[in-house]
């Protein structure tokens, strides 16, 4: 069985290039998905407190460790949620994650978003005055949370990084602490190539993991797997459209974490196909003159009234990130 290519993080740890995403994987689905994935060669699992399914991922891990793999053969990522940003909360939340997953450590622990929510009020605390909005917390800055992340015991987290962070955010973390995040997990696919951010992260040797590589269609728009050029290239290569989209991310040199709960897709998404330079360029051209970011928290329900990415859709947001 092939376990796929691995990449090396700045810490020297290796990370399998293709991982399994677990967001929106429902209870009763995710346990089977994780078990199927590991039995079919996946060694990289992407998890988070907010996915509210880490206990089921943990149930799957019990089935495959040690029957199929040793714990040290897996690369498990998890993320501190927005309500865990205050320095006193960070390790407490990590402990909850470790308990749910049933493991002593995670291989990579990320700050999920550069946004804090008031702690102790649940995952999505309601705003006291405005309906449908999350109550944001401006007590901790990103730097405060980063300091707590880098102080976490090595026995519990092998590497620490960030997710959804911009160049400005990362520059501030480095300026304040001298510690460069090992990874930044970002949305990246042909409609959101993030070339400037990718170049910056490569230059700083910060590993990139691309999320929503298939262009998660949960907001009801045309799926990337339905793009004519993706279908054409898939047909030519005798591959699936999802394999072609994963290959587009692989061509760019980072790790890619497609999510599926369907057995056949989990298996086929992991089988790599190689793109020629010509096909890579054709797929890249899908994004020329088009731009689409699927994950904009200002549009979430409940909404987060904060501008994160300088997107037009965030123009009416009234808050900015508290960086330092
Ligand atoms: N850091 C962050 O803020 C963040 C944000 C978003 C996502 N992520 C991570 O990245 C992972 C992947 O992103 P994502 O879940 O947003 O989107 P995605 O992986 O791009 O797309 C998932 C969607 O594609 C479908 N799909 C999977 N394989 C397919 C195939 N072979 N053909 C056609 N459709 C297919 C899935 O449905 P089925 O399950 O029914 O197959 C699901 O609807 C997440 O699960 C999560 O772990 C992180």
TrEMBL record:
Substrate binds at residue 112. The record marks 79 as: Lowers pKa of active site Tyr. This is NADP-dependent oxidoreductase domain-containing protein. The keyword Lipid biosynthesis does not apply. It comes from Mycena metata. InterPro entries: AKR, Aldo/ket_reductase_CS, NAD(P)_OxRdtase_dom_sf, NADP_OxRdtase_dom. It comes from the Eukaryota. The active site is at 51 (proton donor). Residues 18-286 form the NADP-dependent oxidoreductase domain. Keywords: Oxidoreductase. Pfam families: Aldo_ket_red. GO terms for molecular function: oxidoreductase activity, acting on the CH-OH group of donors, NAD or NADP as acceptor. Coiled coil: none annotated.
């Amino acid at each position: 069985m092939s376990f796929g290519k691995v990449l090396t993080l700045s810490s020297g740890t290796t990370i399998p290039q293709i991982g399994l995403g677990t967001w929106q994987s429902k209870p009763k689905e995710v346990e089977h998905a994780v078990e199927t994935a590991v039995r079919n060669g996946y060694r990289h699992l992407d998890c988070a407190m907010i996915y509210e399914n880490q206990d089921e991922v943990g149930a799957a891990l019990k089935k495959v460790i040690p029957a199929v793999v040793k714990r040290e053969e897996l690369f498990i990522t998890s993320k501190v949620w927005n309500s865990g940003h205050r320095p006193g909360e960070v390790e407490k939340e990590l402990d909850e994650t470790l308990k749910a997953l049933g493991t002593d450590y995670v291989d990579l622990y990320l700050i999920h978003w550069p946004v804090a929510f008031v702690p102790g009020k649940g995952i999505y605390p309601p705003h006291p005055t405005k309906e449908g909005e999350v109550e944001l917390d401006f007590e901790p800055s990103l730097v405060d949370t980063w300091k707590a992340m880098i102080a976490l015991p090595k026995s519990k987290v092998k590497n620490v990084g960030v997710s959804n962070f911009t160049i400005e955010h990362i520059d501030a973390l480095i300026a304040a602490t001298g510690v460069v995040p090992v990874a930044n997990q970002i949305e990246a696919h042909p409609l959101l190539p993030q070339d400037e951010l990718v170049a910056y992260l490569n230059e700083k040797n910060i590993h990139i993991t691309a999320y929503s590589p298939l262009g998660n269609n949960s907001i009801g728009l045309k799926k990337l797997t339905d793009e004519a050029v993706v279908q054409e290239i898939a047909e030519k290569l005798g591959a699936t459209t999802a394999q072609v989209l994963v290959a587009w991310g692989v061509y760019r040199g980072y790790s890619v974490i497609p999510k599926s709960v369907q057995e056949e897709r989990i298996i086929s998404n992991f089988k790599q196909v190689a793109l020629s330079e010509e096909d890579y360029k054709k797929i890249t051209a899908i994004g020329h003159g088009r731009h689409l970011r699927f994950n904009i928290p200002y549009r979430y329900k409940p909404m987060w009234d904060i501008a994160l990415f300088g997107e037009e859709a965030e123009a009416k947001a009234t808050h900015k990130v508290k960086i330092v």
